[in-house]
């Protein structure tokens, strides 16, 4: 079981901090982010686990499902049941596979009305009866007086239900139930009852759904610790789960031991007054593999043993972080680390089988195949965090998974937004590219004691194949013209043209960096030129990135606050995207007219009064500070840009403003969806005092720390000790920085410096030190900085236009 060895490595590396295990573990609050727009779930999972066993509180029609993207929302008062797959903080909804609801008394086959819980199988609950820790969740279902407890291994969810005495005990299994629900989502499902030779009963089944990921298949196996006294199988295909009536076709159980259809519901009966343990194993490949996963990971019916194992695994992994700070800071940091370790998820069986983007079954030879890749988000900070805190084997697994997906893709390109091995084509850019580039630039392709590494040249070939795939995302126009016009193609087809141009340019820069490192200078030269294409949508007359027409002119009229359909931007506007050239912020400063111009424009963005109605019709916009939107990723590096203009103390001020307003240790403590760890990774980096503005540069821009003392165990086993001397509320400015006793008079640290370990000391003070790290030589990497090997001219001349499909 390769995944167990991967996490076991983390456990061994964490040994020096064993004394802090319980305190770090205890500081985690899985309810953080389950309210407002955080989209996290409180249920049980392991680090990078394939199972996320958690309560679902509502099933909504597709147009209303966004708020329930994780299945659970803290403000709800009823629970439908417990399903086995969930996203942690995604900006889209899906999953919620194999819903199980324990029932005492009469069995109802539909969820019922949320305002009348007794009309269906849902149950009321109270938060005071909930308990959640990493790897464990419990709640009392008030309408059934059933105590439900959940824990998990990598591929198996384990339930324990304590039923009241004197009432019949049942389990309701609903294969219709799905997050992102709509009629016809379940293409097919099946359920079989198997009576074993020892008198026990096994349920196996599958379902295929056409949700966010098309034609996704999931198989499962279910076993019970108590004898089954009756089974009732229903095909309620004509009864959508959102229907609230009764006495409809499908109310009568079929007298069979196997059933297929689009509306499968089952009720399983047990003797009353008992504790019941239920094991549910899942597989992307087959029922046989699900049974094998169960036998490999949970052969016995010992709930407490599985819970103890899950707790120990989380204690080991979380103990890499030790924080000396006030309780709110400890809770938010510990929970951020927890959330950052939930994805990407293992997406293969214990024997190495997995389903790829071609929907065929493949075998992972020597690596763990992982999926749940929210790449538009996680390339910015989540994956750079993993390169710091995890052994190289874990990043190698991610890289090899993406390279396998590229080989198995019908289009020959890297993943865009993939889960369960299936591509969704969600969001823009080809952001698997900077993740591969960042790993190669940090030397993680090299074999080591616990990792085979990966082929960097093969990775570069995959990166180039994705960046040159002309049919995807108007790349053909981008290559031909040097930007994507907003007025070509079908109406609305180019609505994200500015964001696409800007994001492609950053991805292209990372390709150039890798190619230069590998000595493939023809590729490096070509993509260095493309890395400057962000300039081709930057209007120097008003200092904004703007939609540009095919004839080369900028579209008029222009409103930098316009977002949504027709704006040219993805989940934002010109106020957020005009700063998105992490590879060349000095180039931006030049175009704006100098350092002061950049600082003034940043201040105008942060301080601007914004009518909340401006973004009322734009999905995923939250956490506003002026026109800064912390709940969405294109803004995440903006506070650090003051340091590029020689005013690092302004970065200190903005970080204080962001962290104090955007993160709290409460259910609504995440202002935007966590995006599979990106929001959490931003917080971890920023509270430690540095942030990877440009992944692939091997630099981290220095900000300011927010804890008195942090000890972080790195992926190579060394420790980075971060000390904030004189840190009190009034002392919010960095006075000086020392690394292992040597002064750092620049506003960046290198990856090698951090991975060497030692002590990073910040001296804090009440007033800005306007002399620390302010010279041009002290600033972070930028393409346009003097002496840069890939320095660009002020304006890139694009090739002459030609038709995309010529």
UniProtKB/TrEMBL annotation:
Signal sequence span is 1-26
Any keyword Signal?
yes
Region feature Disordered, mapped onto this chain: 773-806
| Segments of skewed composition (Basic residues) | 794-806
Q: Where are the transmembrane segments?
A: none
Quote the SUPFAM superfamilies the UniProt record gives. Six-hairpin glycosidases
**Entry keyword set:** Hydrolase, Signal
Q: Which GO terms describe its molecular function?
A: hydrolase activity
Q: Where is the composition biased (Polar residues)?
A: 782-791
Give the source's domain of life in one word.
Bacteria
Q: Which residues belong to any copy of the Glycosyl hydrolase family 92 N-terminal domain?
A: 28-283
NCBIfam families per the UniProt record, alphabetical: aman2_put (TIGR01180)
Q: What is this protein called?
A: GH92 family glycosyl hydrolase
Q: Which organism is it from?
A: Terriglobus aquaticus
Q: What is the lineage of its organism?
A: Bacteria, Pseudomonadati, Acidobacteriota, Terriglobia, Terriglobales
